Structure formats: structure tokens, C-alpha cells
């Protein structure tokens, strides 16, 4: 039986006259797009353009909420009240739902960005705040969570649909979290290395951490990063390797969660 996996990517992360990444190139490779909603990146026109292209490519769309941190691209950790975070995430869900209406698309999932994603993986109150926002706005939105984290626990506790995520083009620490980008070589820019890690995650259910530790994981979706110069080449290499291994790439709603 053919194994199924979803490929997702963070999209619409330009702002105004500035573009980040090759959104059009990535949309031809992935199954689901995470759309920035104006807080760490993105603006209404950029959102509209990428959503329209996503529809043309048969790609489903999801919310990519981040901290209100344009200067730091949402990669700076911010301490805030959980209820403030909940409303901030709900606000971004609503923004994407409004722009999706122009293309006649439904928002299918939510995947937190950058520092928010990292903090929610560790902090129960942050993970629950994201989940509560989903449940309040649309309880059918799929909560994308890193395996074994507080986000997974929050989704389970709140009874939300959940997709477990892996990062084939990133390195991991021994505790199963993503290694900081400040550490050299933690972003894989070689398509072959990223593809090998993708196959290991999907077929073997494991990752090899920075120090060589083997960690068991379960994944429904793999994130490929389009904001690197090598992003399209790495994403294409991952997809080709998956298909060569008889692993079918499908939109996230088509996964058995």
C-alpha cells in the first residue's frame, strides 16, 4: 500500500514591495501552504496573491500566525499573557479566512511560525492558547504540531484534529526540538541530505539528532522552507525522493489523521 505524506511550506512572507522566497516555485511542489497573516510578515495583497496561486495549483491553505514582530521576522521570543496570545492567533485566523473568501477557499489548518512555534512546543499555556483560538473560531481547523510537544498534548486535550509535523531540512536537538538556526549547519541546504532525512522520518519513523541520538517520531506532514536561496531545489529533491520511494504527496485534508 502506498504511504501518504503531506508537504507544507511557509508562504506569503514578503511585506509590501518586498518578497521573501519563491512562492510560485514552491507552490508547484507542496500540497499545503501556511500563509503569513501580517504579524511577523505578510500583508493583504501578498496574502491574496499567494492564496490565488495556491488555488490554481490545487494547494490547500492554512494560517501561519506569528508574534507581532516584523522587525525580527517573528524569530524573537516574546513573553505575553496566554489570553493575549489566544486573541492574537484568533485575529490572524480571521484575517486569512477573509482573504480566502476571495478565492472561494476554506482554511484547513494552522501551523505556528518561528519563535511562537518553538515556545508553544515547550510551554503548555502557549500551546493551549493556540488551541483555544482554533476551537473558538473553527474547531475543524487542523492543529499542526511537532511530535511529542505541548502542542500535541493541547490538541489532544481540546479534541482538535491534529497533524504531526517533521522538518526534513532542519536539524534536531536530543530532546526532539528543532536546533537553533544560530548553530551552524542546522538548516540543510543539500537536497540529498534533506531527502534522506525525509525518507527516514516517513518510512522509518525516526530522526537522527545533532549528537547522533536516534529519536522516534510520527509525522503526517513535512515542512520545507522556501525562504532559503536553495528552498525550491531542496523541496523538489524531497518530493522526488518521496515519490521514488512510493510515498505519495497529498494535501493535508487527505491525510488519515
Provide tags for this entry:
8 helices, seven-stranded parallel β-barrel, 257 residues, alpha/beta
Low-confidence stretches: none
Count helical runs.
8
* Order of H and E elements: EHEHEHEHHEHEHEEEHE
Strand order of the largest sheet: 1-2-3-4-5-6-9
Largest sheet features: 7 strands, parallel, barrel
Residues in β-strands, percent: 15-25%
Shape: globular
- The overall strand count is 10
Radius of gyration: 17 Å
Tell me, rounded to a whole number, the average pLDDT: 94
User: Helicity range of the residues?
Assistant: 25-40%
> By helix and strand content, what is the structural category?
alpha/beta
The rounded distance between the terminal residues' Cα atoms is: 17 Å
Please characterize this protein's 3D structure.
The chain is of the alpha/beta class and 257 residues long. 38% of the residues lie in helices and 18% in strands. Helix 2 (44-56) packs across helix 3, helix 4 (114-122) packs across helix 5 and helix 7 (191-204) packs across helix 8 (231-244). The longest helix is centred in the middle third of the chain and has 20 residues, at 82-101. The mean pLDDT is 94.
Q: Can you summarize this structure?
A:
The chain is of the alpha/beta class. 38% of the residues lie in helices and 18% in strands. It is globular and about 40 Å long.
